[in-house]
Amino acid sequence: MASTASSNLTITTISLTMAELGPLNPLPVVAAELDQPYTVGEGVPEELQASARYGVVPNVYPYLMQDGYGRDAAPKEFPAVVLENSKLKVTVIPSLGGRIWELFDKATGKQLLHTHDAPQLANIALRKAWFAGGLEWNIGTRGHSPTSCDPLQTAIVHTPDGKHILRVWEYERLREVVFQVDIWLPADSDVLFVAVRLRNPNDHDVPMYWWSNAAIPETERTRVIAPADDAFGSDYATDITRVRPTDHEGYDGTWLVNSPHAADFFFDIDPSERRWVVAADDDGDGLAMLSTGLLRGKKLFVWGQGQGGKRWQEWLSPGAGPYAEIQAGLAQTQFEHLVMPAGAEWAWVEAYGNGHLDPETSHGPDWNAAVAHASARLEQLLPHEELESMLSAAISDADVPPSKMLLHGSGWGVVERARRSRSGMAWIDESGTPFVDESVTAEQEPWLGLLHGKAFDGAPSFVAGADWEDLLAGQNSVEAKFHVATMRHARQDLGGAKALYREVLAAGDVRPPTRALAHRGLGLALLAEGQETEGLAELRNGVEADHSTTALLTEAATLSIRHGDPAMALQLTEKAPKEGAGVGRLRFLRALALARTGNPGEAAAILHEGVEIPDLREGEDAIAALWEEVCPGEPVPFSYQFGMH
User: Which of 236, 310, 385, 540 is the most buried (most CB within 10 A)?
Assistant: First the structure.
């Protein structure tokens, strides 16, 4: 394990048994498809209801989906950076979203984060691919970040006052903002420090979302404590309502093992209180999350003790034991966005360490006593004034240039700088967070070329913005026309999109993949307007135009069943490939189509043989529902139980 040390920072590698991420899904994300699982119920203040209505996006366009993974894992080396002192050893994986993967407390020999050596990719993030464990950074909109499984720009920074900082940063394409995370561990510190800065270079407000999510080990005796009596709660089935976590539906939900099903508790911490959340196991040990004032929200998430929650945890972390999450965010809850003003910079400091609570008090029957004890203990661990006073230095450190670049992220920051330079729009000061030409790949090259006056002849990626639409409209190419159609579609201008898709399809010399995507776009737009027969016919035309894209076939089969034509799905799945990441879902779709066309016996045979869907969605209970329908009287196998209730 080759490594180079830089003070208490060591550049090394970590071996994880993981499936390959696989190729990006080539289908542009144009449908209005981000489901909003929360509705707001009783006792929720109007201010919170208003911020829940604000900033909701129809989809994650211009990102492409990451669903090309399977479940065949193999050992793989990932670049890693270790920060270590006499108290803690911290491992960060920059190429997987800059995630802090391990936070090891030397005094107790305990991992404060849920961590394991075989993380399994699953469909839980905004772009699908996500894995459980560690401490992750979520930006953009409600859900796990678009950058969850991406390499981030990564560097080591030496500050004038002698700090050695690991910095990760990236340009976030949904909100068109830049985020950076600075991580450092002073020599004898009991806590790890993280400073986050968000910058909105735009001349308009941007809806903003940020949550730092820490997965923690769940034991029989783990309790989570925060300085609040009440919380806003959701169990993924009912409205968000005001609840009391210590007396919720007849149980004390602050004990992780008490929740019968998946649940969120967003603690309603009084603005005058220090904002923290801490976990305590049998010995009182566990992760403490502390932050300066801007990071207002504090949350507990549990999978619950039901079959579905247990199945999900085994699916995500095979053999690694149960876990829960404690989280910290900008808003009070995760169904809100905050207004980030034009040109604004927001920054805060977070701290992570072992809370070392007294187990008798923290696990005692008196909640107020447990809170008071935890509050006093965390004040000893890191005084509130000391943490608040670190903010100004963190803000000035944020612009210190990198001493050593370790890893390139995406090339989109380079494209954005060029785009803004061309159109006279403001951009950030890149001193501390450079976007370098070496990060540019085939995904970005056609767009940079277009900005620099080259003819546009298609791209495997997508962009958003009125200035891009104007640039493309000035191009005399069918590929440019297709991209403008896609941009209109993504912002739900269905009429404008349909007209351009039809122009693309009427042109003579269209490449098969572009023709297929134009049929598909037209089909989705027609379906969105309720024209089911015409829409499904266009989807079928898309599959016929390009048989090589499994994603096209899968989507067409899914939508044909959803829109009442299972016979079409049956025909489509006859031609389905027999290997690759999408095969499990196609086998399931075939079983579903068989059931819907009056062949329950054949459907049951497929389910008995075994179906595994690598990109099964969180809470998706379709396999169990089909089993109950076609195998009546037979108990649903554990491997099919993914329902959260």
Answer: 540
The answer to whether 263 and 231 are in contact (CB under 8 A) is no
Residues ≥6 apart with Cβ < 8 Å to 52: 38, 40, 333, 335, 336
The answer to whether the predicted template modeling score (pTM) of the entire model surpasses 0.90 is yes
3-state secondary structure of 251: strand
Q: Which amino acid is at 483?
A: H
Residue 53: per-residue pLDDT: 86
153-158 and 404-407: which strand pairing? antiparallel
Percent of the chain surpassing pLDDT 70: 97
Reported as half-sphere exposure (CB side, CA atoms, 13 A), residue 264 has a value of: 25
- Determine the 3-state secondary structure of 39 from DSSP: coil
Give 415-438 as a 3 state SS string.
HHHHHHHHHCCCCCCCCCCCCCHH
Name the packing angle between helices 600-609 and 583-596 (round to 10°).
150
CB atoms under 10 Å from CB of 427, counted, come to 17
Q: Assess contact for 83 and 166: CB atoms under 8 A.
A: yes
Share of the chain residues as helix, strand and coil, in percent rounded to the nearest 5: 30, 25, 45
| Neighbouring C-beta atoms of residue 70, cutoff 10 Å | 18
Query: What is the rounded CA–CA span in Å between residue 44 and residue 268?
Result: 11
In angstroms, what CA-CA distances link 453 with 419, 450, 461, 488? 12, 5, 18, 23
Q: Supply 115's token pair.
A: 């961590």
pLDDT tens per residue, range 40-89: 777 788 888 888 889 989 999 999 999 999 999 999 999 999 999 999 99
Reference 61, options 572, 527, 486; nearest CA is 486
What whole-number distance in Å separates Cα of residue 273 and Cα of residue 292? 11
Tens digits of per-residue pLDDT, 98-129?
A: 999 999 999 999 999 999 999 999 999 999 99
The helix or strand, by DSSP H or E, that contains position 18, with its residue range, turns out to be strand 9-18
Give me the count of residues in the chain.
Answer: 645
Cis peptide preceding 637, ω within 30 of 0: no
124: helix, strand or coil = strand
CA-based R_g, the chain, Å: 25
- Residue 193: what residue type? F
Of 280, 151, 159, nearest to 225 by C-alpha is 280
Tokens of 620: 């998706």
pLDDT band at 619 (very low <50, low <70, confident <90, very high): low
Given a contact cutoff of 8 angstroms between Cβ atoms, the answer to whether 97 and 337 are in contact is no
Region for 249 from its dihedrals, namely left if φ exceeds 0, alpha if ψ lies in -120 to 50, beta otherwise: left
Instruction: Please classify residue 385 by burial: count the beta carbons closer than 10 Å to its beta carbon, then call 0-12 exposed, 13-18 middle and 19+ buried.
Output: exposed
Q: Whole-angstrom Cα distance, residue 623 to residue 588?
A: 8
